[in-house]
Design goal:
There is one protein chain. Helix content is 45%, strand content 17%. The protein is of the alpha/beta class. The chain has a five-stranded parallel beta sheet with strand order 2-1-3-4-5, sandwiched between helices. It is globular. The structure holds 5-O-phosphono-beta-D-ribofuranose (RP5). The site of 5-O-phosphono-beta-D-ribofuranose has 10 residues, from strand 3.
């Protein structure tokens, strides 16, 4: 079982790395590929179908500008697809709106602009539904983050250097 990360261009790789980093935190296997919905549509279709017929459990797709990649991936599979809007123009609002506005029946779960780490985390949470050990790891991660916040300076000390 693995999470498949696709992105529209090599220029997306720096941002999309966060998804792999989140998955690695929880020991989840992943694969990544650069495949544009516009530039190599046939190869994208074949890759997605091959992964679905293999051991893919969830897809993460990142794209900027017109950002059709996540929606096109979702059109080939009923496995969950998480879209990452990449900031390439207009502060990423173009990609965010494109990815989030899927037609009824073909959803893409969309995370914040450039927030590929959350995409990896959400994929982990989806996989964890039927894997108690993974759920425990994610809960521990949450607890650690919560404890770190509670250790921050309190009250007026918040503004101390
Ligand atoms: C999209 O266009 C890609 O996902 C990328 O974010 C953006 C720019 O791509 P390049 O022109 O840098 O290849 O398809």
């Amino acid at each position: 079982m693995k999470v498949v990360i696709v992105m529209g261009s090599s220029s997306d790789a720096k941002v999309m790395k966060g998804a792999a980093e989140a998955l690695e935190l929880f020991g989840i296997d992943w694969d990544a590929r650069i495949l544009s919905a516009h530039r190599v549509p046939e190869e994208l279709k074949k890759y997605v179908i091959d992964q679905v017929n293999g051991d893919a459990a969830c897809f993460i797709a990142g794209a900027g500008l017109a950002a059709h990649l996540p929606g096109v991936v979702a059109s080939y599979t009923s496995l969950p697809v998480i879209g990452v809007p990449i900031r390439a123009a207009f502060d990423g609002l173009d990609a965010l709106m494109s990815i989030v506005q899927m037609p009824k029946g073909v959803p893409v779960a969309t995370v914040g602009v450039n927030n590929s780490f959350n995409a990896g985390l959400l994929a982990a949470q989806i996989l964890a539904v039927h894997i108690p050990e993974l759920k425990e790891k994610i809960n521990n991660f949450r607890r650690e983050k919560a404890e770190a916040i509670l250790k921050e300076p309190q009250d007026r000390e918040v503004f101390n250097d």
